[in-house]
Design brief:
about 220 residues; 8 strands; globular
Length: about 220
């Protein structure tokens, strides 16, 4: 297993991995349009923070990747990236995405009536960095994910980062266990993610944080 920096030539292979790496999990697909979803959760990192992207390679093939950002306040928010994708790909005019966003509006309205929070961006100067990680199903249990995280932690330490956060789903028990082993701790409530479903059930956001190494 080799962990190395992202190279421009990796882009297409990462795009392909993005479309199927999360199969079977709550984040397998948001609204069934991998191209627009990659424009939110993959492309901005390759374009704006390539130095914080790492890949795991086995047998000459990329089997996992980690995308990150040292300072979330200087990176387009998830809401901004989603809004841009909606406009660029005209998602409200596509049947499957339109159903997702219709359901999301219903979820949001129902939560507002009940005065319950819904998922949102995480902003806290104590944990300014953030990451996303994906590993192919056949590479899980090989140490690829932990090795990617260790390389990311080294980057954080090299840059004196005070801490890092991530957002996963309560229902993604495997991911929560992994992040806990890597030193992350759940923080805050677990609000509903409007529109998202896993096995026909609603899905809830879980923020997790990890402080940086003392200097």
């Amino acid at each position: 297993m080799e962990i190395r920096d992202f190279e421009a030539a990796d882009r297409q292979e990462l795009r392909e991995l993005f479309t199927w790496a999360s199969e079977g999990s709550p984040v397998a697909s948001l609204w069934g349009d991998p191209e627009s979803e990659a424009a939110i959760y993959l492309d901005p990192y390759l374009d704006l923070a390539p130095e914080s992207v790492f890949v795991a390679v086995a047998g000459g093939k990329i089997v996992g990747y980690l995308t990150g950002c040292l300072d979330s306040s200087k990176f387009p928010s998830e809401v901004e990236r989603i809004e841009r994708a909606i406009r660029t790909y005209r998602l409200f005019l596509r049947p499957t995405p339109a159903r997702f966003f219709g359901r999301a509006m219903v979820d949001t309205l129902a939560a507002a009536i009940r005065r319950e929070p819904t998922a949102s961006d995480f902003q806290d100067s104590r944990w300014p960095a953030h990451l996303h990680i994906a590993v192919a199903a056949d590479a899980r249990g090989t140490g690829a994910a932990a090795a990617l995280m260790d390389r990311w932690f080294a980057r954080l330490d090299e840059n004196g980062s005070p801490g890092c956060h991530l957002q996963t789903q309560v229902e993604n028990a495997r991911a929560v266990r992994f992040f806990t082993r890597m030193g992350f701790t759940p923080i805050g409530s677990a609000p509903l993610i409007p529109g998202m479903r896993y096995q026909d059930e609603r899905v809830h956001q879980q923020a997790m944080v990890r402080p940086g190494e003392p200097t």
